Every structure is written in structure tokens, then in C-alpha cells.
Amino acid sequence: MANKRKNNRFWTGVPPWIFIGAVIVLFPIFAFMTMQNITRQKESNFRLLLEKGAALIRSFEAGTRTGMGLSWSGLQLQKLLTETAQQRDIVYLLVTDTNGIVLAHNDPAYIGKKHGKGLDLRRISLAETIKGRTVSKSDGKKIFEVFRKFSPAQRGFSMGRGHMMMQMWFQQGINERINIPPSNPIIFVGLDMASIEEAIKSDTRHAVIMGIILLLIGFAGITLLFLAQSYRTTRMSLSRIKAFSDNLVENMPIGLVAIDNNKKITSLNHVAGSILNLSAEKVIGENADQVVPAKLWQLLENLDTEKGVIEKEIDCTLRENKDIPLEVSATLMNDENGMFLGYVLLFKDLSEVRSLRKEIARSQRLASVGRLAAGVSHEIRNPLSSIKGFATYFKERYHDVPENQQISNLMIQEVDRLNRVVGQLHEFARPITISKKPIEVKTFLKDSLKLIERQALEANIKIQTDLATEIDGVVVDPDRISQVLLNLYLNAVESMKNGGNLFVMLLKNKEKKRVEIRVSDTGTGISDDDLTHIFDPYFTTKASGTGLGLAIVHNIIDAHEGEIKVESRLGQGTTVTILLPYNRAIENR
Fold first, then answer.
1. Terminal CA-to-CA distance of the chain, rounded, Å?
2. Given this model, what pLDDT does residue 351 score?
3. Where are the domains of the chain?
4. DSSP string across 530-567
5. Which of 12, 192, 268, 396 has the fewest CB atoms inside 10 Å of its own CB, making it the most exposed?
6. For residues 303 and 331, is the Cβ–Cβ distance under 8 A?
7. Closest by alpha carbon to 316, among 301, 298, 300, 296?
């Protein structure tokens, strides 16, 4: 589609129909303007020749009037006519009667011949209006002919005397070949059009050239307007595309780093900056091999130029010597011609994913252990009951033997301890059933702390609370949550044998939209190796512990669709965070 769209445009980027439309609109306009200009020039030349012929006729008539005053003979008038016709551009000068018979001519050979073919000379002889026409000679030469009524007499001069003088001239010499006295004679002046035609051709060429130039200017102007509009539209489109792409890159949920062919960082979104602990303002334009962690840069250097893509999971070491698991995709950037432009790195933090994987694996292990524990607890309880019965029987039978009494009591105590362990195992193995109801969570937490006040006081432990006032009620199973809290309190107290602080906090976790309960202590803490196993069944660091307390706590929180997290540093204390879902009353606030 892109190539097809590209082929529908010229190199200017403007569609071809714009050029065709411009030609269709402009050509008739400039053709009409050029023809109008040529027509005006021809009319101007026509008027110029007409005025020139009229001036010659008036000049000749003035000469004839002078001759009348001096009583010239016909020969003198012929001489005047001949000399007048010798002026430049005059082809002929003649006088005819209304029948077209030549009465006088600068070339006497034409006297008596007929002239004015195609003209109504009688009508012309009655008007004083000067007229002109273009005639062609036999050799193809064009002549501009000016003619009108011949009136040599001045105003105020006797018309009868003037008529008599003309008749006398024609009889004395001008019209020696014919004896017809002139009646309303007509004078013709033939002007050479060679120079005028050359001027007309020059003017026509100039008009055509100017028309073509104006057409090209108009065409270029329209094209420039469309180019300017196209440039403006393209620029706006590119601005929108850039804003969209920048916004997309910046808000995409995975990290992105773009590197040009000079190995300079050109783009880094906020996710990448957050994962790699880098600031885009500081690293853009810097050398990538000095900024990007070594393992990521090594991936780029090992890119297969043919395939151009690498996808794998790696453990990346940051500058703070902190390892984070990353899912990385590295690829090459090439333009449409295959020219290398740079690299693109896409990566995602897998810390949470790996944690979920471990949680799934743990859940699978616990499910297997639970099925095994259910069978074992059932099989052990019956023999324990028998053992306890026999121990009680021996205690009563040999009550007078102190040693036997001591052994019997020890047997009964161990059976009871085993029975409690089996009971906890059975409780861990079977599904947790909960009965939810709304509770005043602040009051509930205060009441739960009263259960360990005496033990805390004896161990020199100070209890502190910070309970959010905006949380009034939570829907939970109070017995089960009380069992969870009591287990956490007792673990905290046991970890602070030399005294310390027990801190309980209640707040609203707006990010996850949950109620958050934190139980913190300043006890001995938990090592990193033990921290990953604290919710595993039968894992314990206590001499007398069963290792099922926190496993049951985890199951109870899961049954409430909540979360439980433990953070601890050896020798600095432990913080257990419980996240429980909002009820509707809290969510609507």
C-alpha cells in the first residue's frame, strides 16, 4: 500500500491531478489573455495605418488646394501626386470616380483602369468617413489601402468653382486618356505593410512568450501553494505522529532503549529508566556501551545480522550490584533500503513473575503435602488413642510405683503433643472454611493485642499502634483473622527475648485498593535463606515448633483472597504485611 501510494505522487509529493487541474484552469485563461493582447495590437496597428493614410490624404488635398489658389495646370497636379507617392511606405496614390475608373495615379500607366473591386464607391463618395482595408497583390504582398471621398476644396471655397477646377485639371493633363469629368472622386492611398507585418509578428511572438511565461508563473504559483499546503499538512501530520509515538513509547508497559548507528542513546522511556535506575535527560546522547549494563550491551553485539532479533531471559547486574531478572528482546533497525539505523532494546522486569512462579510451585508442593498429610493424620490418630489408653491403664494399675507413674505421665504428655501436631496437620491439609462478617477493624485489632499484653509486659516489650481513622469496617472471618494475628504476635514476642517494640499499623493501600495491616518487631529477624521457606510446612527455627503455624496463616489469608508478605533483616527485625480486600462501604469512599 505504501509503494502504491508513493507511485500515485510526483517527486514533489503533490498528486498528479493537481498539475492536470492547474493546466486545465490556467491554459484557457492565459490563452484568452494572449489572444486579446494580439487582437489589441492588431487593432492598434490598423488604427496607426489608417491615421497615416488619412494624414497623407489630407496632405495631398492641402497641396491641391494650394494649386487651385495658384492656378496650377493638370501636369503640375500630376507631378504633385507622383512626388507624394514617392514617400516611404507608399505603394500607390490614386483617384477614381464612383465607377472605379482611375482618374489619376502616381503611375500614369494605371490611368483609365478600374480600381476598388468589391467596394460600393457610390456610397463612399457621399461620405466623408475615412476607411481602410487590407488587399493582397498578385505576388502575395499585402497592402493596407486607405480611401475616402476626395475633397480638395476648402471650406468657404465655392463648390462650383472647385468642381470646375477639378474638371479643368483632369482635362488639362491628369486625365488626358479619358474625357469623363470627375463626379465625387475617391482617393486611395496604398501603404506597404511589410514593416507593420514584421511588427505584428514581433508583437505576436512577444505576446505568446509573455502568455507562456505568465502561464508558467501561474502554474508555478499554484504548485507552490499546493506544495506549501502539502508541506504544512505533512508537518502537522508528522507532529501528530511524533507526539503519538513519543506518548506511546513513554507510556508502554515495558522498557525501551533506542540506540543509533553511532552507538548513542536516542530514546529511553520511563519504564526503562526505572528498571535500570537511569534518567533520560542525563543519558540521551551518551555512549550506550558506557550506560547500558554489560549483559544487555553484549546481547546487542551478538545480534545475528541476518536474523536481527534476540529474545531471552537474563539476570542483569545493575551498578548497585543488584541482580534483576529481565525478559529481553533486542533487534536491529533498518530503513526501507536495508541501511542500518541502530538498535532497539525491549525488556521487562521478571521479578514479580518469578515470584509468582515460585508461589505456584510452592502451592503445588503444599497441595501434594496436604493430600499426604490428610491420609497420615487419619492413620496416626487411631494408634495414638490406643497408646494413650494403655498409658492411662498402666498409670492407674501401678499407682504405687513412683517410677511407673513418671513413665506413664511422660507417655501421656507425648501422646497429647503428637495429637496436637496431628490436629494441626489435619487442619493444614483440609480446605480452609471461613465465615465472613463485618467487624470494626480498629476495635478488633486493639482486642487482639490484649491477648498478649501480659506476655509483652513480662518480656519488656512496648506495644505501639497507628490505626487509620478512615477505615471503619472490614468483612472477614474474625476467628480466623484472630488466629492469624495471634500467631504473628507470638512469633514477634518470641523473637524479642531481651525486650523491644511491637508496632501494629492499619492503613488503606490505594494502589492495590486493599486494607493493609502491618505487624513489625525489633527482634532477631530472619536470614535470607530462611525467609524463602517460612510458609513451607514443617519449616521452623524454634526448638519446640511444629512448623505449621505460618503455613496455616498463609492458607487463611488465601481463603480471604488476600496477600501476606514478610520483610526481614537479620538482627534488625521483621515486618509482616497483610492485604485484605475492601468491602463495598470502604470502596465507595
1. 53
2. 81
3. 1-251, 254-349, 354-429, 437-587
4. HHTTTTSTT--SSSS--S-HHHHHHHHHHHTT-EEEEE
5. 396
6. yes
7. 296
CB of 461 closer than 8 Å to CB of 569: no
* Mean pLDDT in order along the chain per 10 residues (589 residues): 45 63 74 79 84 86 69 65 81 86 84 84 75 82 86 51 50 45 77 81 81 79 79 85 79 85 85 81 82 80 68 77 81 81 85 80 71 68 76 76 79 76 66 82 88 88 86 83 89 88 88 85 87 75 67 84 89 90 54
Candidates 3.40.1550, 3.30.54, 1.20.120, 1.10.287; CATH matching 354-429: 1.10.287
Is the Cβ–Cβ distance between 274 and 257 less than 8 Å? no
Q: Whole-model pTM? A: 0.42
Give the span between the Cα atoms of 95 and 85, in whole angstroms.
Answer: 12
420 grid coordinates: 496436637
Nearest-CA neighbor of 327 among 308, 292, 363, 352?
352
d(CA 287, CA 294): 13
Residues 483-513: tens digit of each pLDDT: 889 989 988 998 888 889 999 999 888 777 7
Q: Of 510, 509, 527, whose CA–CA distance to 518 is shortest?
A: 509
The pLDDT of residue 576 is 92
CA–CA dist 574, 530 (Å, integer): 13
Alpha-carbon distance of 46 to 51, in angstroms, equals 9
Cα–Cα nearest to 101, from 92, 87, 111: 111
Q: Which of 507, 517, 554 shows the shortest CA–CA distance to 533?
A: 554
CATH class of the region 437-587: alpha beta
Distances 488 to 57, 226, 359, 447, 519 between C-alpha atoms, Å: 135, 77, 21, 15, 7
Query: What are the residue ranges of helices labelled H in 252-279?
Result: 270-276
Residue type, 38: I
Q: Report phi then psi at 577, rounded to 5.
A: -115, 125
Pick the CATH number of 1-251 from 3.30.450.20, 3.40.50.2300, 3.40.190.10, 3.40.50.1360: 3.30.450.20
Q: Are 330 and 343 in contact (CB under 8 A)?
A: yes
Decide: 56 and 189 in contact? Cβ < 8 Å: yes
CATH class belonging to 254-349: alpha beta
For the record, the C-alpha cell of 362 comes out as 510452592
Instruction: Round to whole Å and give the CA distance between 343 and 300.
Output: 7
Handedness of CA 70, 71, 76, 80 (dihedral sign): positive
- Packing angle of the helix pair 402-429, 549-559 (nearest 10 deg): 30
Beta strands in 83-237 (DSSP E): 90-96, 102-105, 131-136, 142-149, 186-192
H-type alpha helices, 119-193: 121-125, 159-169
> Which one-letter amino acid corresponds to residue 478?
P
User: What is the C-alpha to C-alpha distance for residues 144 and 120, in angstroms, rounded to an integer?
Assistant: 18
Does this chain's domain 1-251 share its CATH topology with 254-349? yes
Q: How many CA atoms lie within 13 A of 389 on its CB side?
A: 6
Under DSSP, is residue 523 helix (H, G, I), strand (E, B) or coil? coil
